[in-house]
Specification:
Elements: H1 3-21, H2 28-32, E1 46-52, E2 55-60, E3 69-74, E4 80-82, E5 89-90, E6 93-94, E7 105-106, E8 112-116, E9 119-124, E10 127-130, E11 139-143, E12 149-154, E13 157-162, E14 167-170, E15 179-181, H3 186-193, E16 202-204, E17 211-217, E18 223-228, E19 235-240, E20 250-256, E21 264-265, E22 274-276, E23 280-281, E24 288-295, E25 300-307, E26 313-320, E27 335-337, E28 344-348, E29 355-359, E30 365-368, E31 375-383, E32 388-394, E33 402-408, E34 415-416, E35 423-429, E36 435-442, E37 445-453, E38 458-464, E39 478-484, E40 491-497, E41 508-513, H4 531-538, E42 542-546, H5 555-559, H6 568-583, E43 587-597, H7 599-607, E44 617-621, H8 632-639, H9 646-652, E45 664-668
Parallel strand pairs: 41-42, 41-43, 43-44, 44-45
Antiparallel strand pairs: 1-2, 2-3, 3-4, 5-6, 7-8, 8-9, 9-10, 11-12, 12-13, 13-14, 15-17, 16-17, 17-20, 18-19, 20-21, 22-24, 23-24, 24-25, 25-26, 27-28, 28-29, 29-30, 31-32, 32-33, 33-34, 35-36, 36-37, 37-38, 39-40, 40-42
């Protein structure tokens, strides 16, 4: 920061202080009890569902005297009509076809099934029927596409229930405490499939004739004891948990008819050291299963087409990188098949940035659709008729902002559809792409919502979070700033909330709140006022959210710095940030605090040991203090195995630097 910029900063603070002195103050007691002024901020509408390109259902209040209701907005006239319509509902309750064990699965025909008191209950037009009544607990009930069957697991076996014959069929018979059929092992649930799947590991074919499922053998995975503190004495719980370098579960992929019969196994060797991703079906042939495969080193992704009639497989896609590839499905879909055999759109970060590529349906590359130093974050809509893709991307205008774009299949005519110096955090496209609704803000502008057409023309304002009394109160100033990395390669983003009534002759405590993991940035140029943040500003804290080079702002190119070397580059950038505030006279070097949970807990503990010459206070929640003690899939993605990268594991461990510990570190952990 130059001397001139430093002087300008303090002039700005002087002006802010003068203005704040003329504004109302919200007391700390009111902030702590959440007693905020009634008209400080407004609630924005919620987009529930597009009916078509001309009508959308919004949940909102039309004026201050009415309660929020569902309304249909007519795009052409701007008229609002009250409606009972909304997202898919069953008996007035909204559900998604999630297959969760504790939520209903809703069929396309409005039927629903759920687990209650460990058994299956079926609802059709308000009539409820109990389907099962035994000691086993049914899990993840999921309708077949034609709604004639329900698939689920029980006692680690796979079952189907035929609603026409009212017959339950047990499809597998070898389920035990270590053999799981259609029910994921902990490692796959936590690190590959995701928690939202609730351990489900089976997939209906589009024609409802096949249930594909994964068979897990956990017998060689080490057992990990977990003490649960519930009750007077607590108890021990045991989980098959593979630490870095340990044996993983062995996995097979089977296909079986919901009416029973023999399982046909896909042609993979379960003894190989490998991972499988979430399975999908090839839409042009309902008997072909797409299986995502990855080696233990996680730098080679292959997609196989598996024939469900005999289990034979054919390699369809093959990608290798020098570092790692994420096995988890890309946001918006890694693979998107076009209709009528017109091609496939695939997402990949092989260039150093996540982009879209067009392939033939046989897997032959045709052309890149997007390119450049920005990250495609999701596909909003594929208009096959006009060969246009609508997608969101981060970093083309500003790495802390997301925008909506459109581009042709051949990569031409790329156009930004969102507007202004804003972060368009959420966009909702109409079914044909004629309009979209965007929710947007920046650090200085409360969130707004607008209706926009597909040329980027603003049609109608739908809401503004700024209330009638927002300007009457002395609210903490938050701004996005950039801090140059020590090696000069990156302008690292920081979202800073300054203390109220700052004194240019005084130094203030600095509180850095982070998560810190690879591709897990938290800094966006967005409005984010809260009572808690205002309270800390009143108390005189500089509050900072800061993202390092591997946080996602700088694509896979930035993430690659962490390969085999967790901790070092994150801490290098955090240290640069803290020194920037100290050097510019705002932060008290004796009060530099860092806090975070999970990976943020690791970084906080690392900061008070490896980085203790800069960081003086820390709160580390749920910390990974040594990567040898974390699971295989997540850890080895970045670090390889301890056997193959002993120096990396040593340098990344908090325990290596305990002799450097100084300051104050609070360690927080859960009770289970």
């Amino acid at each position: 920061m130059s001397i001139v910029r430093g002087l300008l900063t303090w002039v700005t603070f002087a002006v802010i202080t003068t203005v704040q002195a003329q504004q109302k103050q919200i007391s700390n007691s009111d902030l702590m009890s959440n007693k905020l002024p009634e008209n400080l901020y407004n609630n924005l509408p919620t987009v529930l569902k597009w009916i078509d390109d001309e009508q959308v259902i919004l949940y909102q209040k039309l004026d201050k005297d009415t309660v929020a209701k569902n309304y249909i907005l007519d795009i052409k006239t701007g008229a609002f009509t009250e409606t009972m319509m909304g997202p898919k509902t069953v008996n007035g309750v909204e559900f998604r076809n999630s297959g969760l064990a504790n939520k209903p699965s809703v069929s396309p025909f409005g039927k629903s099934v759920m687990v209650w008191d460990k058994d299956l209950f079926y609802s059709n037009n308000g009539m409820e029927t109990r389907l099962t009544n035994d000691q086993g607990e049914e899990k993840n009930p999921t309708f077949s596409p034609d709604s004639n069957y329900i698939g689920y697991t029980k006692n680690n076996n796979l079952y189907s229930y035929d609603l026409r014959t009212k017959k339950e069929v047990q499809l597998t018979n070898d389920g035990t405490g270590t053999i799981l059929n259609g029910y994921a092992s902990w490692l796959y649930y936590e690190e590959i499939f995701g928690r939202s799947t609730y351990y489900r590991a089976f997939w209906w074919s589009p024609d409802s004739k096949i249930l594909a499922y994964m068979h897990f053998d956990e017998s060689k995975v080490p057992m990990f004891p977990i003490y649960v503190s519930e009750g007077q004495h607590g108890y021990m719980e045991k989980t098959r948990y593979p630490l870095a370098g340990d044996k993983n579960p062995e996995v097979k992929i089977g296909m079986v008819s919901p009416d029973g019969g023999n399982t046909i196994w896909a042609d993979f060797n379960a003894k190989d050291d490998q991972y499988f991703g979430w399975c999908t079906w090839k839409p042009d042939n309902q008997a072909l299963l797409l299986v995502y495969w990855m080696n233990r080193g996680q730098n080679n992704l292959k997609i196989f087409v598996v024939n469900t009639t005999d289990g034979s497989k054919k390699e369809w896609y093959n990608e290798t990188q020098q570092t790692w590839i994420d096995l988890e499905d890309r946001v918006g879909g890694r693979v998107n098949f076009l209709k009528n055999d017109k091609g496939v759109i695939i997402q990949s970060d092989k260039s150093g940035w996540n982009h879209l590529y067009l392939y033939n349906t046989d897997g032959l590359f045709r052309n890149a659709i997007t390119s450049g130093k920005f990250t495609v974050t999701s596909i909003g809509l594929i208009d096959e008729k006009n060969e246009i893709i609508y997608f969101t991307a981060q970093g083309r205008e500003n790495t802390a902002r997301t925008d909506l774009y459109r581009v042709k299949f051949n990569g031409s005519d790329l156009k930004r559809l969102t507007f202004g110096e804003y972060n368009h955090a959420k966009t909702s496209l109409s079914p044909g792409g004629k309009y979209f609704i965007t929710t947007y803000s920046n650090a200085a502008t409360p969130t707004r919502m607008s209706l926009v057409d597909n040329n980027g023309k603003l049609i109608r304002e739908l809401g503004d979070m700024k209330g009638a009394e927002t300007g009457q109160y002395a609210l903490a100033k938050t701004e996005l700033i950039r801090i140059k990395s020590e090696d000069g390669l990156y302008d690292l983003p920081a979202l800073v909330t300054w203390p109220g009534n700052m004194d240019p002759n005084k130094k203030y405590p600095l509180l850095l709140s982070i998560y810190g993991g690879p591709n897990a940035g938290t800094v966006t140029d967005s409005w984010s006022w809260s009572a808690n943040r205002q309270f800390y500003a009143n108390e005189g804290l500089i509050q900072v959210s800061f993202d390092h080079r591997a946080s996602g702002h700088f694509g896979k190119e930035g993430m690659n710095y962490l390969y085999h070397n967790l901790g070092f580059w994150e801490m290098a950038d955090y240290t640069t940030m803290a020194k920037w505030f100290i050097r510019n006279g705002q932060a008290d070097p004796a009060k530099i605090a860092i806090t975070g949970f999970s990976y943020g807990g690791y970084m906080s503990a690392y900061a008070l040991t490896y980085g203790a010459d800069v960081f003086t206070h820390g709160m580390a929640g749920g910390s990974v203090v040594d990567w040898r003690l974390y699971d295989t899939h997540y850890t080895e993605r970045y670090m390889c195995t301890p056997q193959n990268n002993p120096d990396g594991y040593k340098s990344s461990s908090v325990l290596t630097y305990t002799d450097r510990y100084k300051g104050v570190l609070q360690i927080v952990h859960g009770t289970s």
